[in-house]
Specification:
Elements: H1 3-13, H2 19-27, H3 33-54, E1 58-61, H4 73-83, E2 88-91, H5 113-130, E3 134-137, H6 144-151, H7 162-165, E4 172-175, E5 177-180, E6 183-186, H8 196-204, E7 207-210, E8 217-223, E9 228-234, E10 258-264, E11 267-272, H9 275-278
Parallel strand pairs: 1-2, 2-3, 3-4, 6-7, 7-9
Antiparallel strand pairs: 1-10, 5-6, 8-9, 10-11
Helix pairs in contact: 1-2, 2-3
Length: 281
């Protein structure tokens, strides 16, 4: 809906225009007030949805690697989403870590597999309470139980689904990827490096939001004579001191904690987590 048309409709809804006036300004045609009212009412359901769509703001977080997320990350995301008027929420995956059953060497001080799972379910509940409705695009860590089972020839039919395993509410929708308002959201496997997000956008030919790369975050744009698109990496929400991330102790690039805000298919913003959250002040 164009700005002028939306304003005309809003003015009609508020009673600032008669149906006849609104219809004439929308179409250039003059008809009786009663007939115009019928036409405007018929349009109302569609136009209300268009206005709601115009005001949609998507908040994006990911790579929390629960239960090894930063203790203040959830509060940071809640505060950021509230401040930016977020209406829809997407998690780009690696919601959980599954360190104890990973194919990588397990830390000698690690919790048992069941102990980690119990803690994971406990912390995940904090996120589902904070965000009752979420689109979750699965990450590689989220799928560890199913990949490990597959190495033994055990198919998914023998296993509890991801939602049941973590007690996720039905309002958390699980997907491999998600497209909303012409923006693609996915975990970002095989989208490596500092330009992983914008390269993904170029490949997908649409604005793209990813996670996966803990040490690279931000939003980059690319344009041609037809349009402008962006690629955004939303960073992560991990506790860098947790034993699950000991492998990165001497990494050249340190993890960047933050989240993303998507306003449209050509405008988005990465919000880094401030020091006040790191320090718990």
């Amino acid at each position: 809906m164009k700005g002028r048309e939306k304003q005309l409709y809003v003015n009609w809804k508020k009673g600032n225009l008669t149906s006849q006036q609104a219809w004439h300004q929308l179409t250039g045609k003059r008809i009786a007030e009663e007939t115009a009212r019928k036409y405007m009412n018929a349009l109302a359901h569609y136009l209300d949805k268009e206005i709601e769509k115009d005001h949609r703001v998507v908040g994006v977080f990911g790579d929390t690697h629960i239960p090894f997320c930063h203790p203040n990350y959830l509060q940071f995301v809640k505060d950021t989403f509230d401040r930016h008027g977020v209406t829809d929420i997407v998690c780009t995956g690696d919601l959980v870590d599954f360190h104890a059953i990973s194919r990588h060497t397990t830390d000698t001080t690690a919790m048992s597999a069941y102990g980690e799972l119990d803690k994971t379910i406990e912390v995940v509940e904090d996120f589902t309470n904070a965000f009752p409705e979420v689109i979750l695009t699965l990450g590689n860590h989220d799928e560890i139980p199913y990949r490990q089972a597959a190495t033994l020839g055990i198919g998914n039919r023998f296993l509890r689904g991801f939602s049941k395993l973590l007690n996720l509410p039905p309002t958390w929708e699980i997907k491999e990827s998600h497209i909303e308002d012409n923006v693609l959201y996915k975990h970002g496997l095989n989208c490596g490096g500092k330009d992983g997000a914008i390269n993904a956008a170029i490949t997908e030919r649409m604005s793209t939001v990813i996670g996966h790369q803990h040490s690279f975050a931000g939003c980059k744009y690319i344009a041609n004579h037809r349009d402008i698109i962006f690629g955004m990496n939303v960073g992560c929400g991990i506790d860098i001191d947790a034993y699950a991330f000991a492998y990165g102790k001497h990494a050249k690039y340190r993890p960047i904690l933050g989240c993303g805000i998507v306003y449209s298919d050509n405008y988005a913003q990465f919000v880094p987590m401030g020091l006040e959250y790191f320090r718990g002040e």
